[in-house]
Amino acid sequence: MQSSIVPRDLDVDFTEVPRHWCADNAAATGISNGVNLLFPSGERFFVRSVKHYLPQIDDPQLRADIKGFFGQEGRHAREHDRLNEILRQQGYQIDEFLEQFETITRWIEARSTPELRLAVTAASEHFTAILAEGAFEQGILEACDERMQQLLGWHAAEELEHKSVAFDVLQQVDGRYRTRVLGLALATVLLGGFWFWAATVLIKQDGLTWRTALKSLRTLPRNNPIIRRVFLRGIKMYLKRDFHPAQHDTTTMADRWFASRKFAMPEAA
User: Fold this and answer.
1) Tens of pLDDT along 208-227?
2) Dihedral over Cα of 6, 129, 101, 10: its sign
3) Which domain holds residue 154?
4) Residue 5 lies in a domain
5) Is 93 left (phi over 0), alpha (psi -120 to 50) or beta?
6) In the predicted model, is pLDDT for residue 142 greater than 50?
7) pTM, two decimal places
8) What are the tens digits of pLDDT across the range 4-30?
9) Which of 6, 16, 63, 156 lies at a 20 to 30 A Cα distance from 74?
10) Of 95, 116, 200, which is closest to residue 166 (Cα–Cα)?
């Protein structure tokens, strides 16, 4: 059984990415880099959470999609590791944060049930799909350095392609509404909290406070509040008892991105 979820390799040189690559704005870049810091560890957690249940999945199409999901997420983690190295070269002190982030998340993971870890993964994938959709619909990537456009567009398009996988696995192994909602609650707290912490670490190193950062953001042409657009909207959608990620079709959005790229995106064998 062949899956439409195809892992692609990204071939982009990040060495010339400017320090303030998002709209030439330190605050916007710090917030964006904040969530980027979370991706390598987060993507590997998602893979572990789904992989735990792979032996229980009999449906050949879902098994094929899971393997495509593994390939895409593994590549996302690798490329964001490369970006983190660029942040180090730019002078950002990120290792203390990353060590503490990894320690805390590993502690939580070790004390959580497999069902809860999967539910957190499914909810987190929902949030990242909303981020991806917004990046394309609102033209957010247009304000970014071209190399970051390529990284984030590639990542966003693949997130849209596999956005249903973890949710479908959760429905098969634990379809209880309360499990889904508990995963949503924990994912909201963890993603929101760690993102705020990471962004704070970065914007402080650019000499900003949250007060001056928010003032700087208001000078940008797009008013794009993350809390309302991602978290409040995402929670409202996810709490519907009949919710499924595929109810909102974003297939053509991902297809258009890959069709429009001028650089090579080779498919993995």
Assistant:
1) 999 999 999 888 876 555 65
2) positive
3) 26-260
4) no
5) beta
6) yes
7) 0.93
8) 899 999 999 999 999 999 999 999 999
9) 16
10) 116
